[in-house]
Each structure stands twice: as C-alpha cells, then as structure tokens.
Design goal:
This protein has 420 residues and is an alpha+beta fold. 30% of the residues lie in helices and 28% in strands. The strands form six sheets. Strands 11, 14, 17, 18, 21 and 22 form a six-stranded antiparallel β-sheet that branches. It has a four-stranded parallel β-sheet with strand order 2-1-3-4, sandwiched between helices. A hairpin with an 8-residue loop joins strand 6 (137-141) and strand 7.
C-alpha cells in the first residue's frame, strides 16, 4: 500500500483524490492545501515546493500535481532530485503551457497543426502588422496569466486595445512582455487529454468545456463553467487523427528535442472543416473536464499515474470507461470571473443520488459548516445513460444546493446534444 499526496485545491484535485482513494493499492490520500470537500488537508501552499517535498518524504507519498503553476516552477524536477515518486511533467516539458511562444514555435518546427502566428514585443510593430493582416486575430500574452491572457478580437480596434493592454499597460506584468498575434480560427472547440509516459500517450475519454460565463457561450472567458464526456464532436475517426497528428507527434517531437513528456497532455482543439488545430497546450488535467472524465473511469487511476511517471504505460491493460455520459455543472459565486463575495454558508449536500457526486472547489470547512471561498465553488457531476439523461441528473442535484450568491449556466451539455 502507498500513500498519495495530491497538490492543489480545486475541483480537479478533489476529483483526483476521490478517484485515487478508490484504488486498492492506495492507503492514505492527503491533499495540499485542499478545500472544504477533501478530507485529509495539509496546510501547505502549492508554491512551497520544499515543504511539500518534506511532507511527501515523511509520509512516503506518491505525489500527484494538479495545477500548472507548481509544474512550471519545477516541482517535479525537485522531487526527482530528492528521489521522491511524483506524477507530472518536468519544468522543461511544462513550457508547452508556461510559454505560449515556446509552444507555438515548437508546433511550427514540428509540423503540428496550429493557427498561423507572429511574435511581437513592440506595440507599434504589432499594430502595423494587424493593420495589414487580412484575417481576424487573437492576441495572447506569452506567459501564465490565470486564463485571462487571451483576447479574441473581431476587428482592428479590439486588436489594438488588446496590444495596449498587454504590451503598454502591462496588465499581465512579465507574462505579457511578448505577445503572439495569431489567426482567429472559428470552429468547434473540444478538449483532448492524453496520459503520457515519455514514449506513448493513451487518450482519456473525450470532453467539451464551456469557457464563457453566460449561456450560449456569451461573456468573458472563465476557467470553465461546466464540461461533459464523451463529446460527439470528436468521433473515432477524428480521435485517431488527433492521436496521430497531435498527441503522438508532440511526444515524439519533444523526445527528439531531448525532453520527455510524462503526465497529462491536454490539447485545446479547434475543429474547422473537420480538421483539428491546437489552440493551446496544457500540461495537466482540465478543470472541470477532470470531473466528468474521472466519473466515467473504471480503471485504477493510481496504476496509470504511477506507470506514466515510470515510463511504463505499455505494461498496462487497456484503460476502461463506463459507456454512460457524465456532466459537470460548475456552481460559481455571483461576480466570477471578476470579484465575488466569499463566506456564504452552503446547504443541500444531503441525499445526493448514487449516480452523482458534488466535487468541491472554492469551499472551506468553517467549524463544520461549508462556506464559499472562491469563484468556482462546486462541480455537480452526474452520470446518465445518455448525454440528455446526464444533463437532467446533474441539474436535478444542482437545484438542491443553495447559497446566497450561487450562479450557474443553464445550458451545460446543450451544444453536445446538437451534434447527436
Ligand atoms: P486559451 O487560454 O489559450 O485556452 O484560450 C482561451 C480561449 O480563446 C480558447 O478556449 C478559445 O475559445 C479562444 N482562442 C484561443 N486561440 C484562438 C484562435 N486562434 N482562434 C479562435 N479562438 C481562439
Ligand atoms: N477547463 C480548461 C482548463 O482546464 O484549462
């Protein structure tokens, strides 16, 4: 038996710890720092790599890293140096997410399909480029900007404003010292996540996120307001194309460049005229995609994460998924993704049906009461025999849960129904 330390505090980390605790090989599951729904919380921040390593050493843990920041900060490298077992990509491999410019240049030199782009550090030159470019553009800050560093523009005025915001007003600080201006690709978006061991990548179940705050994909981008799995937007044929032209090619190209990619590789895909383009890479599970994906997983997650960290995914039998659909509805605080109140008491956690689970994200246990403590507060996740059933099941549970400033989208999964 082994102990596990999950690093992070979101819905994704609650889902990872929930699934890992079901493994017959796993003894204790600790979560640092965790949230109001995770049970053995360790009060260490995800930034305090030394303290996390000391804890993992003391309890002989296998460590699973949820979010990108500690990966980009070299948590995995530090743990390996100390001889600790850890799941996730190295700092070098995490550049696929931590530097959008590095990722775009990597895709270009390795012929991985992505939108055409140019890089600028000078606002005047960037604006001159926009004024002569004939297509609509998307402007991206190079570094990690908490999901806010991408501005999708409809005309030159919006593009010029975005350039000023990042390069002149420095709204993202150093993360915005360079920008990418890329062709806007309009199509259908989906999340394609594979578990990689440096040699191969095995696909997770497909999923689709809902990034905008309002129904019908209106309003500003968020971390994700809900997700479902599988998505009809990616059929078997397209899945094979993505697997070969994007996932396998990314792993082998990284390897050719001397970098092993171990961990979850998440390709944010735009499908235009049946062809997939990589909009971005993430080097971790998606949040909230992780919640419906793990609800559908039959296999022992621990075995897969361990094999990924050891370069041994080939030794495992084929991963197994439930045939059912799963839907996760994010319950957020009013005001998210901008400012929002915290500290509201949440009720309605009793009598949750067997086919459903309420994952916690921005919650805190305050002397036995669960209170809101973040923008995305809960992820109500339900299985169903069809996508439509899973949507209904999830909304039935979401209705039972109350707090003063609760906000949810009411159309999670709807765009999937239109492809069935
Ligand atoms: P990212 O933070 O890179 O995931 O980008 C946020 C969102 O911006 C994506 O989920 C897309 O909806 C959109 N986006 C990014 N790049 C493009 C592009 N080249 N064309 C159209 N939309 C894009
Ligand atoms: N749900 C999108 C992400 O995890 O980046």
């Amino acid at each position: 038996m082994v102990n596990v330390l999950v690093v992070g505090s979101g819905g994704r980390e609650h889902a990872l710890s929930w699934k890992l605790s079901q493994s017959e090989l796993v003894d204790e599951v600790y979560v640092a720092p965790g949230n109001g729904g995770t049970s053995q919380n360790i009060p260490i921040s995800v930034d305090d790599i030394d303290a996390l390593a000391n804890f993992a050493q003391e309890k002989s843990c296998f460590t699973v890293v949820g979010p990108e920041a500690p990966l980009a900060n070299g948590l995995v490298d530090k743990f390996i140096e100390k001889g600790l077992a850890v799941f996730g990509p190295s700092k070098q491999a995490a550049q696929l997410e931590s530097s959008k410019i590095w990722a775009k240049e990597f895709m270009k030199r390795n012929d991985i399909p992505t939108a055409d782009f140019e890089i600028f550090d000078d606002a005047q030159k960037a604006k001159e480029f926009v004024s002569t470019y004939e297509k609509q553009v998307v402007i991206k800050a190079d570094g990690l900007a908490a999901g806010k560093g991408v501005i999708v523009c409809s005309n030159n005025d919006e593009a010029n404003d975005a350039i000023d915001k990042i390069l002149v007003k420095k709204e993202f600080g150093d993360a915005g010292s360079k920008i990418i201006i890329e062709e806007r690709v309009d199509g259908i978006e989906a999340s394609y996540i594979a578990l990689c061991d440096g040699q191969i990548g095995i696909p997770m179940a497909t999923s689709q996120d809902h990034k905008r705050i309002y129904d019908d994909d209106k309003g500003p981008n968020t971390g994700g307001m809900g997700a479902y799995s599988p998505t009809p937007v990616i059929d078997d044929k397209l899945s094979n194309v993505i697997q070969e032209e994007i996932i396998a090619k990314t792993i082998s190209s990284m390897s050719k460049e001397g970098i092993e990619f171990r961990g979850f590789l998440y390709a944010g895909i735009m499908i235009r005229d049946g062809k997939p383009y990589v909009l971005e890479y993430n080097v971790r599970m998606g949040d909230p995609e992780c919640q419906p994906i793990l609800m559908r997983l039959n296999s022992d997650l621990y075995k897969y994460l361990k094999a990924s960290s050891e370069g041994k995914l080939n030794d495992l039998s084929e991963i197994s998924w439930k045939d059912e659909s799963a839907v996760c509805i994010v319950l957020a605080s009013n005001g998210y993704p901008n400012s929002y109140p915290k500290g509201d008491e949440i009720s309605g956690f009793d009598n949750i049906p067997q086919n459903s689970f309420v994952f916690h994200a921005g919650t805190k246990n305050d002397d036995g009461k669960i209170v809101s403590n973040g923008g995305r507060v809960l992820g109500v996740t339900a299985l169903g025999s069809s996508l439509n059933d899973a949507i209904n099941n999830a909304y039935n549970v979401a209705e039972k849960i109350h707090w003063e400033n609760k906000y949810q989208r009411n159309d999670i999964g709807k765009k999937g129904l239109s492809y069935l």
